[in-house]
Amino acid sequence: MADERRAWSEADRAAYREFVRTHHPDVGGDPAEFAAGLREFHDRAAATASRSEEPGPDAPVIFVTRQRGLPRIVSAFSARRQRKRNPRVR
């Protein structure tokens, strides 16, 4: 949905905001009409986004996992302890 909104022009955004302000159920609008209007706006935005979609990069996507939970805490404290250790000079 966020990609769809990026493709909207300023006029489309203004029309969307005006529609929401006037038809939202919290300000007395009909919920069914509001849902239908939102669907129409998002369908129009999806069609616009698919036409103007640029090809992505050719590089592969790499997922990097991070430690979570107790192993991460233990490794953080052990790394800190090693940094704070005084040099053993006699």
Class by helix and strand content? mainly alpha
Question: Uncertain spans, ≥5 residues at pLDDT below 50?
Answer: none
Percentage of residues in helical conformation:
55-70%
- Reading the helices and strands in chain order gives HHHH
Number of strands: 0
Outline type: elongated
The profile of the biggest β sheet is: none
For the CA atoms, what is the radius of gyration? 26 Å
Helix count, per DSSP? 4
Query: Kindly, what is the distance between the CA atoms of the first and last residues, rounded to a whole number of angstroms?
Result: 65 Å
- Integer average pLDDT: 77
In what range is the share of β-strand residues? under 5%
Protein name: J domain-containing protein
InterPro entries: J_dom_sf
Report a brief summary of the structure.
With 90 residues, this protein is an all-alpha fold. The chain has helices spanning 2-6, 10-23, 31-51, 70-84. The chain is built from four helices and no strands.
